[in-house]
Amino acid sequence: MIEVRPFCGDPADLAAFINACWNDRYLARDLIPTYSAADLSWQMLESPDRSFHLAAYDGSQLVGCFLADRVRVRLNGQSVEGTQGSYLSVHPDYGARGVATRLINTLERLHRAHDLKFFLGYVNSSPTSSAYKFWSSFQRTFPKRYRTLGPVQFWMRFLKAGHMASELDNAAEAAGLKVLSLLQPAPAVRAGSPVRPFHSGDLAACHLLLDAEAQRHRLAQLWNAADLRHELAASPVSHTLVSSNGSGVQGFATSFHWPMKGRGRIPAEVIDLLLLHDLSAAGKRELLRSCVADIAARGAWVAVLPRPDFRDAATFLACGFVPVPNVCTLMTLFPSAELDWAGLDGSGLSGAGERGR
């Protein structure tokens, strides 16, 4: 009998399970993330509340998982609590045994029990992907339980474009990357740059920047101090740079380890939070170039920057990023009828960090 309960096992086992499930469902041409125990622990499992880290078991065998964490957002001016998550995975031998449905239904019951108003997640936008097919079918069957909010665009800065080309099945993309490897210089940090590593005394200033940014968007994540400290503090997985002058922190960028799989393993990092609003055009480029140089120094082949829109496109292009539109879609499950979702179609989630995504 299949039982759903909070996961409390070894992070290495869960990472291996997710990797195996996704490798089974995606082709070599699909770039998909691949997780280690450290990556998964930082992103999800170190959360103090693990009641939404759901796993499905057949006896002692792990056969599925769906992980979420509590999150508070500002939705059209209203502060609302829900969850944010991902990693829905089902063992290939159990795909027709209702494991995904059990996991989703259990998460919905937990939302009702804790008076949570929504779940936010991201779905691969490729019509050929298994995730797209699953959630499209779910939306048709349960239109009141699923709502699409908007596309997420990716910007990619290729740091070792020739290496990336060798891992892609798409001949045109591979050829383009080989040309790019000849044309694009390596990222470098300017002498005397105001950008430096984050330290604990910067936390309050960074929090204020995020809160101010949230006021500018219809949908934005609201951070508490503990979660933000986890996001910004240096670790083997994550890194933060701040742009600081004599008056304090004016912007910051976080990145974290996010290797991908093509034909083989691709070292990569995601630029997770990028706060640029209070910086000049030159200051924006300085912060982003410093972040990219920092990522390159750690050996990544590519830096990935998810954004809900093409705002700051001029900055990204000036720093060597290439746009990749409509990579995934922001969606919500179990949206409360009392919430005002008006005007959100085509909007993304601002100020969202990967912890809980």
Care to give the gist of this entry?
This protein has 357 residues and is of the alpha+beta class. Helices cover 31% and strands 32% of the residues. It has 2 domains: 2-145, Aminopeptidase; 155-328, Aminopeptidase, CATH 3.40.630.30.
What do you see in this structure?
This protein is of the alpha+beta class. It has two domains: 2-145, Aminopeptidase (3-Layer(aba) Sandwich), CATH 3.40.630.30; 155-328, Aminopeptidase (3-Layer(aba) Sandwich). It has helices at residues 11-25, 37-45, 99-113, 130-141, 161-165, 171-183, 203-214, 225-232, 281-297, 313-318, and strands at 2-6, 32-33, 53-58, 61-75, 78-90, 119-124, 146-158, 195-197, 219-222, 238-245, 248-257, 260-261, 265-266, 268-275, 302-307, 322-333. The strands form two sheets. Strands 1, 3, 4, 5, 6, 7, 8, 9, 10, 11, 14, 15 and 16 form a 13-stranded mixed beta sheet that branches. Strands 2-12-13 form a three-stranded antiparallel beta sheet, with helices on one face. The longest helix has 17 residues, at 281-297. The radius of gyration is 20 Å and the shape is globular. The two termini are 30 Å apart.
